[in-house]
Amino acid sequence: MKIAIAGAGAMGSRIGLMLHQAGNEVVLIDRWPDHIKAIRENGLIGEFEDHKVTAHLPIYSPEEIVDGHANVDLIVALTKSMQLEAMFQDIQPIIGEKTFVFCLLNGLGHEETLAKFVPKENIIFGTTTWTAGLAGPGHAKLIGSGSIEMENLAPQGKAFTLEVLEVFQQAGLNPIYSSNVRYSIWKKACINGTLNGLCTILDCNIADFGSLSIARNLIESIVGEFAAVAEAEGIELNQSQVIQAIEATYDVNTQGLHFPSMYQDLIRNHRKTEIDYINGAVWQKGKNYQINTPYCAFLTQLIHGKEELLKAK
């Protein structure tokens, strides 16, 4: 399968590398000049827990995608939420009538953006529990295992979605076909809405956060706000199940030593975060439904304050 990774940061590098190793034709697309330069000169370095590999993959900036590039079968969307529309605006030359988009972005509200570029029957939504980090430009650190959940947005897309599932299975990405991906997206948003912002503000990894005496109270409060807003949109979150999933990440043998993506973006790289598409989205939706979300509102503003202090770009 010919696959473009739109947003080849830490997670995009991991998924692109594993798909490439399984024999697919993979093209990386990213905006970070140093990352592009490093991969072109030295290949993409993937540092797994017990070995290291180097893959020589083509990589372009979105502006370099021109009509001469052939259409791809699948675009895996892994940009930051606030970059999604601009990315797809630039890469339209590789989007054909039969091109599908698999959205694995964190956060809420991406369906409307993608529907501007491809029909809804060509959209797959999903979530992932895989983790990744960048040790530097062109160098991905790939710790632990994970899975990917996927479901076609419209019934007409199921046949191709099952083909994608098979491709991801061959790549060892542990895909699962979902019958209710919207629930999973909200559940994942809860995980990100607690661990991302809180670890960033508290300057700690997941295990360190989980060791705090205040951890349970904080996650219960934030998950409660997500659940109230989700219910207004017709999705009934099982709060106990969600909290259990969050607390499972504290294990140092799985994800506990990981610093969430928001921490990596803001604290390490002084980049702006996706907070407006996670806690910020719940805050804004809550206003629309007249639901009070003080924890999400406060955390959103704290992250924006930290962005200002660090002069994030």
From TrEMBL:
Enzyme Commission number(s): 1.1.1.169
Ranges where the Ketopantoate reductase C-terminal domain occurs: 180-307
Enzymatic reactions: (R)-pantoate + NADP(+) = 2-dehydropantoate + NADPH + H(+)
Domain of life of the source: Bacteria
Pfam families for this protein: ApbA, ApbA_C
Signal peptide boundaries: none
Presence of keyword Cell inner membrane: no
UniProt keyword annotations, A-Z: NADP, Oxidoreductase, Pantothenate biosynthesis
Biological process (GO), any one: pantothenate biosynthetic process
Transmembrane portions of the chain: none
Alphabetical list of InterPro entries matching this protein: 6-PGluconate_DH-like_C_sf, 6PGD_dom2, ApbA, Ketopantoate_reductase, KPA_reductase, KPR_N, NAD(P)-bd_dom_sf
Residue ranges of domain Ketopantoate reductase N-terminal in the record: 3-153
GO cellular component, one term: cytoplasm
Record-linked Gene3D superfamilies: N-(1-d-carboxylethyl)-l-norvaline Dehydrogenase, domain 2, NAD(P)-binding Rossmann-like Domain
Involved pathway(s): Cofactor biosynthesis; (R)-pantothenate biosynthesis; (R)-pantoate from 3-methyl-2-oxobutanoate: step 2/2
GO function terms (MF aspect): 2-dehydropantoate 2-reductase activity; NADP binding
Known role: Catalyzes the NADPH-dependent reduction of ketopantoate into pantoic acid.
Family note: Belongs to the ketopantoate reductase family.
Name of the protein in its database record: 2-dehydropantoate 2-reductase
